[in-house]
């Protein structure tokens, strides 16, 4: 309950400024597009056109299950929120957050992977076999990722909603 | 006047003392700066940031250079061989002009003009629902607009995924139908019945009978180890070409992953034809 209140408070603090909505949206979009288009990156780079871009996006989404898409959207939004919180904290010069934020955002890159349809970053890296061994064929990673992003959100919220500067134990 | 003179002198002395003190401070400051220049301190945070940044840059470079292969293309366009029987995913996706399509096509069944300007190689799994989707929604359009008009040669190669129990038996059944000259008839039978999911040997046998194959010969063929080796070769070649899931396509060296809509294929094929 305390954590939820903390997160709520942090979100109010961060999103008081409209620019963080933009940061969240941009980061979420980047993560979402990365996960949907990464398996066809070579084609996109060699023959780029906007029609190809949108066709690939449409085709990839049509190849994903509803659950995969839902997990991906949630992860993208959470990654966007974490990015906005990180930017906020960096601007406030609160140290020690980049590790948590970066690792969480990297987790969102693995996303729900579907080994049979080669979607997702892990399949591209050749971990399709590993995903095939998992009971839910990679979807567990989506839930795991969301869990980790949730923990990071709470951690960053604690940093944002804190109203004092901590005294380093080394001083005095 | 005397007072003023004394005050002035006192004032001058005070000023002198101030000047001396300022200069002493400057000396100390310079000494401190000199000392600073002699030592360099790295905090853990700086070190971590630098390493993360460097790894991030390396990752980006590896993506753009297909895994740090700077101009490493064999003139003959030979594929990187993978050990037979192992699926060895490769980061080296083929790019235009590097992959030898004749080598990649192997001796697998094909539709259309053998000498067509564009070759599409599909790596597919009979139990994969997205392969069924491609067959039902996209392949008919490719067939009518490009294959039947002689512009495209369409090659089918097997890529059964390990967790699809019926994928390999279905592939064996189709290959053995192909040995009797009816590969694509059997291939269509499988996909028209929703793929190999939920099917069994009895279904494949019934379809073999429907297609008027020599069933005894067909059954013997499906138990031939050479047929399994053929499928393993397809998997190895596909993995080496960058296929990491099904359906996967190589169109004149360009990799397309997933059951993409016809518009994607149209753009790529038209670009190759032009």
Question: Quick one: overall form of chain A?
Answer: globular
Report the oligomer. heterodimer
Shape of chain B: elongated
Number of strands of chain B: 5
Radius of gyration of chain B, taken over Cα atoms and rounded to an integer in Å: 35 Å
What is the terminal-to-terminal distance of chain B? 105 Å
Characteristic key phrases:
heterodimer; A: 172 residues; mainly alpha; 9 helices; B: 274 residues; alpha+beta; Glutaredoxin; 2 domains; 5 strands
Q: Would you mind describing this structure in some detail?
A:
Chain A has 172 residues and is an all-alpha fold. Chain A has one domain. In chain A, 72% of the residues lie in helices and 0% in strands. In chain A, helix 5 (66-91) packs antiparallel against helix 6 (98-110) and helix 6 (98-110) packs antiparallel against helix 9 (139-161). Chain A starts with a helix and ends in an 11-residue tail after the last helix. With 274 residues, chain B is of the alpha+beta class. Chain B folds into two domains: 1-29; 101-273, Glutaredoxin (3-Layer(aba) Sandwich). Chain B has ten helices and five strands; from the N terminus they run H-H-H-E-E-H-E-H-H-H-H-H-E-E-H. Chain B has helices at residues 2-38, 44-64, 101-105, 129-147, 167-178, 183-192, 201-210, 215-222, 225-240, 262-273, and strands at residues 110-112, 118-124, 152-158, 248-251, 254-257. In chain B, strands 1-3-2-4-5 form a five-stranded mixed beta sheet. In chain B, a hairpin with a 2-residue loop joins strand 4 and strand 5. The longest helix of chain B has 37 residues, at 2-38. Mean pLDDT of chain B is 79; it is low at 71-98. Classes of the chains: A mainly alpha (172), B alpha+beta (274). Chain A binds chain B through residues 39-43, 45-47, 49, 51-52, 55-56, 58-60, 62-63, 95-96, 98-99, 102, 114-119, 123-129, 132-133, 137, and chain B through 45, 48-49, 52, 63-64, 66, 87-91, 93, 95-96, 125, 128-130, 133, 161-164, 242-246, 248, 254-261, 263-264, 267-268, 271.
């Amino acid at each position: 309950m305390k954590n939820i209140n903390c997160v709520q408070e942090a979100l109010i603090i961060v999103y008081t400024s409209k620019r963080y909505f933009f940061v969240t949206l941009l980061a979420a979009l980047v993560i979402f597009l990365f996960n949907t288009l990464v398996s066809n990156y070579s084609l996109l780079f060699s023959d780029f056109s906007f029609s190809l871009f949108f066709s690939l996006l449409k085709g990839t989404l049509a190849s994903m299950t509803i659950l995969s898409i839902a997990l991906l959207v949630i992860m993208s939004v959470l990654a966007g929120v974490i990015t906005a919180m990180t930017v906020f904290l960096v601007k406030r010069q609160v140290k020690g957050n980049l590790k948590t934020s970066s690792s969480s955002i990297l987790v969102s890159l693995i996303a729900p992977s579907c080994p049979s349809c080669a979607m997702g970053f892990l399949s591209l890296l050749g971990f399709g076999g590993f995903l095939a061994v998992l009971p839910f064929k990679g979807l567990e990673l989506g839930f795991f990722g969301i869990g980790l992003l949730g923990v990071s959100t709470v951690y960053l919220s604690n940093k944002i909603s804190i109203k004092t500067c901590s005294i380093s134990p080394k001083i005095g | 006047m005397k007072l003023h003179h004394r005050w002035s002198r006192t004032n001058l002395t005070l000023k002198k003392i101030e000047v001396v003190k300022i200069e002493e401070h400057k000396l100390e400051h310079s000494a401190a700066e000199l000392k600073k220049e002699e030592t360099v301190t790295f905090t853990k945070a700086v070190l971590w940031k630098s390493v993360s940044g460097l790894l991030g840059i390396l990752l980006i470079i590896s993506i753009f250079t297909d895994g740090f292969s700077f101009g490493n293309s064999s003139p003959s366009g030979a594929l990187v061989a993978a050990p037979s029987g192992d699926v060895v995913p490769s980061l080296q996706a083929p790019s235009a002009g590097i992959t030898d399509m004749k080598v990649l096509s192997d001796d697998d069944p094909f539709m259309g003009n053998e000498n067509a300007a564009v070759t599409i190689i599909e790596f597919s799994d009979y139990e994969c629902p997205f392969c069924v989707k491609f067959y039902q929604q996209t392949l008919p359009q490719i067939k009518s607009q490009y294959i039947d008009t002689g512009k495209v040669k369409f090659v089918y190669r097997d890529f059964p995924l390990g967790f699809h129990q019926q994928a390999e038996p279905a592939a064996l059944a189709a290959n053995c139908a192909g040995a009797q000259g009816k590969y694509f008839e059997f291939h269509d039978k499988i996909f028209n019945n929703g793929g190999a999911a939920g099917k069994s040997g009895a279904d494949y046998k019934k379809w073999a009978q429907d297609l008027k194959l020599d069933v005894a010969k067909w059954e013997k063929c499906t138990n031939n180890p050479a047929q399994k080796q053929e499928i393993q070769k397809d998997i190895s070649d596909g993995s080496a070409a960058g296929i990491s899931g099904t359906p996967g396509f190589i169109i004149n060296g360009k990799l397309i992953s997933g059951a993409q809509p016809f518009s994607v294929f149209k753009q790529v094929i038209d670009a190759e034809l032009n």
